[in-house]
Amino acid sequence: MLKTFTLGGVHPEENKFSSHKKIEVLPVPPVVTIPLSQHIGAPAKVLVNKGDRVKIGQVIAESGGFVSANIHSSVSGTVLKVEAFPDSTGYRRMSVQIQSEGDEWVDGVDLSTDLKKDFDFSSEEIIQKIIASGLVGLGGATFPSHVKLSIPQGKKAEYLIVNAVECEPYLTADHSLMLEKGEEIMVGTRIMMKALKVEKAIFGIENNKPDAIELMSRLAEREKGITVVALKVKYPQGGEKQLVQALINREVPSGALPIDVGVVAFNVGSIYAAYQAVQKNKPLIERVVTVTGKSVKNPSNFLTRIGTPVQALIDAVGGLPEDTGKVVNGGPMMGKAISSLDVPVVKGSSGILVIPDTEANRHETENCIRCSKCVSACPMGLEPYLLMSLAEREYFGRMETEKVMDCMECGSCSYTCPSSRPLLDYIRLGKGNVTQIIRARKN
Amino acid sequence: MSNVVLFTIITLSTIGAASAIILYFVAQKFKVFEDPRIDMVEQALPLANCGGCGYAGCRNFAEAVVKSDSFDGLYCPVGGNETMKTLAALLGREAVEQEATVAVVRCSGSPQHRPRTNHYDGAKSCTIAHSLYIGESGCPHGCLGYGECVDACDFDAIYMNPETGLPEVIDDKCTACGACVKACPRNIIELRKKNPKDRKIFVSCINEEKGAVARKNCAVACIGCGKCVKVCPYDAITMEKNLAYIDPVKCRLCRKCVVECPTNAILEIGFPPRKEKPIVTEDSEGSGLNLS
User: Fold this and answer.
1) Chain B residue at shortest CA distance from A88
2) Is there a domain that residue B288 lies in?
């Protein structure tokens, strides 16, 4: 019997069309738009001005605090504008727009594709290199990685968990990365183990990627302390807390972090980026993005420079299909629809999903029939129907006691609701208000 | 048989009498003095319990009024000056007067002026849509049109116009309680001074983007050109963050700015139709002829 998490979960159609496609390198676009806030935490402080010449990998904005990350130029060329550009929500956020000219890299970056296995850095040196590279969690939450690596006093990490679950339907970025860069990921894992001073690392991979499980298991045999565990396919297994429970059967308490049970988890994409940062001195200027959808001609995975407009990715798969109803940034469960294709790819963009017209619209909302399917589906053990009605009535204080802040917005409740109620929309509204209440109480 | 009846009557009467005596003394002991003026004040209020004064309901407001020595910070917007005068007479204080206000929707972005570039499919709530994304048009400040202000109004004074997709205020019903102002996540609704005959002149836009961007989003956006500021003879218009604002107190309703505005972002409401052609058109035509 395969391992999985115990509470809730759903199993949407997988639709992983691009799972056996090679990672293609997307041509460098003529103009990139790089937002200054691509991570959770304080926005980065811009360092360049209009008209400056920049090289690939040059820091164009420095970390604006402990929970923040550096941002590097993903092209070499001239800074066109430093002003607010629409992000994926449409609201304008400060960004740096750079015109690409030539292919000039900053000094010290190893551009060879050779595998560099050995390293002799201390834990602190690794963390410094990761801070310099601007690495954030590439699974989608974009939490600055060095914060996770800096373990608070009095706590000890026992396990490094490598999140290669990729439970979102359609997305295959991590899968293709494992198939092509398995060796590098193993080195990256050893680097992260060194940084965290842990002896054990566990890969969690869902059973719908048998080739990746086989390859990673074979590579792990040679390493000390690294194991690969196949998991039953269930959404949202890629959630940190769910994965910890599935792999080592420890429950992360409400309001706590995985480190409280001795675990630090990283996405497999972040592990690969850490390898690049430490072994090759290459900052985070590109990532693998899956471009997919039922009517997309050629669903594929692309190594994309940060700041590339989504339009370029759509063009690379043969243009927008005629029956497009919605373009989603991310997967179908947690991704958000975008209202313009000029939006740039950011550090957290794991996929671009094109949904056909017939599937793009929600069904009409009906009354709650108290079937409690949402309660069974919630992986955090919450009561979504109750949270929604509390949010509608603006009982935000009560929502806090009902642990709304534990919600990770996986969308299982809305997915499972037979009355098509917008459960997650209202829960998100409640979370926003409860966050304000908590913040006001602290001040 | 008669004994049983008698016995019952006596027992019950004794218990009743004893309880009455006990209750009388208990009531004396634990008597809470409540200012009778609170009831009087409450009865003088509109009793809409709308919360426009900042208190939970009319009773709370009445308590606060009686407790306080003056009317500082206490004003019933629904009852207005009339009610405040009555309260002043009841309590023997000096009445405070406030200018009557009315809610004004500062957005004219109907689909015709502001084309919808996408379709929103989520929960029909302005707050949720606002927190998710920019909205169906490209304007980050414009009305989202899901009617949270309408739901918030206790007086049926605001409704969605199906043609424009924008809320409209019925001035006669509006009590300026401010519920819609609080409900709107984009802060589009403002309480402005009420003029005679419900006449209004205001900048019907709150877009703070630069002119070119604002214009691209919406044909009737304020583009921050500053023409209205120059033409205003009463210094009533200020320009801040690419957005003109007409001070309702300083404005004397001369309507000069209305014709000057190149994007028709300034609205005049409740005025009789103009007799002459707008002066500005004549001027521009005239100068054009002279140049040629």
Assistant:
1) B133
2) no
C-alpha closest to that of B220 among B264, B163, B259, B186: B264
Residue B59 resides in a domain:
yes
β-pairing, B158-161 vs A336-337, is unpaired
**Nearest chain B residue to A360, by CA:** B121
Residue B134 to residue A429, Cβ atoms within 8 A: no
Q: Where are the domains of chain A?
A: 28-100, 123-279, 285-360, 373-442
Number of neighbours of residue A346 by Cβ within 10 angstroms: 23
Q: How far apart are CA B267 and CA B106, in angstroms?
A: 9
- CA nearest to A300, candidates A6, A3, A24: A24
CA distance A393 to chain B (A): 12
Integer CA distances (angstroms), A31 to A34, A293, B219, in order: 10, 26, 29
How far does CA A353 lie from the centroid of its chain?
Answer: 15
- Is B121's CB within 8 Å of A361's CB? yes
To which residue do tokens 């899968």 refer? A175
Q: How far apart are CA B57 and CA B65, in angstroms?
A: 12
| Tens digits of residue pLDDT in B170-211 | 999 998 899 999 999 999 999 999 888 889 999 999 999 888
Please return the burial class of B198, using the count of CB atoms within 10 Å of its CB with bins 0-12, 13-18 and 19+.
middle
Range of the domain at B60: 36-91
ipTM of the complex: 0.87
As a whole number of angstroms, the distance between CA B227 and CA B283 comes to: 15
Task: Answer yes or no: do A426 and B134 touch at CB < 8 A.
Answer: no
